[in-house]
């Protein structure tokens, strides 16, 4: 039986890799500080609260990470039109019915292999498989929702003109408390996604050996030569 040969394919360009790691760091900071903001602990101290100002630093980190994540997201949206075939918008949103059917078929196959373990042979793909593309598109939409609702919550306490552009959101959604509730609920989408994403990245890297994890560092994957 002939051994398979592999070739190096440059898949993830530098802006995509930078967005991935900047986004990962921002999500970590946003989740950690957001959970504290949502339910701050009662820290007892004999000193004046204004001397420590720890909660102010928590909020500062949260807002700073939010602005950085928003800017990186805008750059990533631009790269959906300027990047290569693996990072463009039609890698996530099928442009025709044929590609849509292929993506749904890939999603079913990935579920059979990754989740149900019904098949042994991995799917041969270079960029995102169908399930990954679908889930990343969902995360893009969730990111937009978090940016809008986060800016809406920040608007009443900010003199910066940008958050004020979203002051119409609380009246539309039924009040600031409702916006805060949904903003907190969507946080758990990112937590769940991160857990699954890390697991599947390790799973594919160990079972396929095509550089799944290292590719997000150097941009290169190993693809079987036909």
Please give a handful of descriptors for the protein shown.
226 residues; mainly alpha; Fumarate Reductase Cytochrome B subunit; elongated
Strands ordered across the widest β-sheet = 1-2
CATH superfamily of the domain at 7-38 and 58-92 and 141-224: Transmembrane di-heme cytochromes, Chain C
Q: Residue ranges: pLDDT <50 for 5 or more in a row?
A: none
Q: Hey, roughly how much beta strand do the residues contain?
A: under 5%
The appropriate CATH architecture of the domain at 7-38 and 58-92 and 141-224 is Up-down Bundle
Number of helices: 9
CATH hierarchy, class of the domain at 7-38 and 58-92 and 141-224: Mainly Alpha
Mean pLDDT: 87
Kindly report the CATH topology of the domain at 7-38 and 58-92 and 141-224.
Fumarate Reductase Cytochrome B subunit
Structural class computed from helices and strand pairing: mainly alpha
Strand elements, count? 2
Largest sheet: 2 strands, antiparallel
Shape, principal axes of CA atoms: elongated
- The Cα radius of gyration reads 21 Å
Helix content: 55-70%
Helices and strands, in order, run as EHHHHHHHHHE
Termini, distance in Å? 15 Å
């Amino acid at each position: 039986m002939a051994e398979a040969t592999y070739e190096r394919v440059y898949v993830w360009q530098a802006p995509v890799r930078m967005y991935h790691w900047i986004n990962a760091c921002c999500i970590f900071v946003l989740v950690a500080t957001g959970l504290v903001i949502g339910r701050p602990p009662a820290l007892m101290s004999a000193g004046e609260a204004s001397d420590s100002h720890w909660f102010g630093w928590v909020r500062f980190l949260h807002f700073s990470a939010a602005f950085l994540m928003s800017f990186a997201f805008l750059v990533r949206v631009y790269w959906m039109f300027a990047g290569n075939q693996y990072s463009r918008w039609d890698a996530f949103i099928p442009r025709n019915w044929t590609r849509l059917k292929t993506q749904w078929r890939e999603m079913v196959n990935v579920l059979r292999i990754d989740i149900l373990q019904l098949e042994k042979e991995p799917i041969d793909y270079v960029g995102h498989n169908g399930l990954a593309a679908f889930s990343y598109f969902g995360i893009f939409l969730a990111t937009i929702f978090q940016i809008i609702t986060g800016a809406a919550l920040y608007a009443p306490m900010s003199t910066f003109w940008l958050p004020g552009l979203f002051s119409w959101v609380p009246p539309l959604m039924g009040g600031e408390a409702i916006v805060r509730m949904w903003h907190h609920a969507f946080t758990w989408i990112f937590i769940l996604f991160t857990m699954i994403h890390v697991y599947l990245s390790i799973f594919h890297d160990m079972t396929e050996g095509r550089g799944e994890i290292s590719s997000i560092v150097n941009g290169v994957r190993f693809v079987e030569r036909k």
